[in-house]
Specification:
The chain has a two-stranded antiparallel ribbon with strand order 1-2. Helix 2 crosses helix 3. Strand 1 and strand 2 form a beta hairpin. The protein is built from 4 helices and 2 strands. The protein has 129 residues and is mainly alpha-helical. The longest helix is centred in the last third of the chain and has 40 residues. The radius of gyration is 23 Å and the shape is elongated.
């Protein structure tokens, strides 16, 4: 569920002026304030996308069960690894090493599937003759 309080936390961490923030999200003609998000439990996708872009965080960071935003750049990927750029170099190096292993495994699977595809094509050609 969307957690508007996470928007407030990022807004405060960034320390920008309310008018700058509201203009970036809703446009210059809006009369909203950052407190618009306080306690809010739902949001439209366009606004969510603007928030994520404005704060440079993934859209998921505004929902329950995702680490609270800290104002640091958060990196996440489809292997469910989430970490902050501010973490220690050792953590980042281990994450990179883990992801390099995933890439290698995927490349090996691609090579295997290509070989299987070639074998199937050859088998199909033989059986059609």
């Amino acid at each position: 569920m969307f957690d508007g309080n996470k928007v407030i936390a990022l807004f405060k961490a960034k320390g920008e002026k309310s008018k700058t923030f509201i203009t970036a999200i809703f446009g210059a003609s809006s009369h909203a304030t950052p407190s618009y998000f306080k306690g809010k439990k739902s949001i439209d996708s366009d606004t969510l996308e603007k928030l994520a872009k404005h704060f440079n965080v993934p859209m998921e960071s505004f929902f329950d069960n995702f680490p609270a935003p800290t104002g640091q750049t958060i990196v996440s990927n489809n292997h469910h690894n989430t970490f902050s750029i501010g973490q220690s170099p050792e953590v980042l190096q281990q994450t990179i090493k883990d992801l390099q292993g995933v890439v290698q495994d995927k490349n090996e699977m691609i090579d295997y599937l290509k070989k299987q595809n070639i074998q199937l094509i050859e088998t199909f050609k033989i059986s059609n003759n």
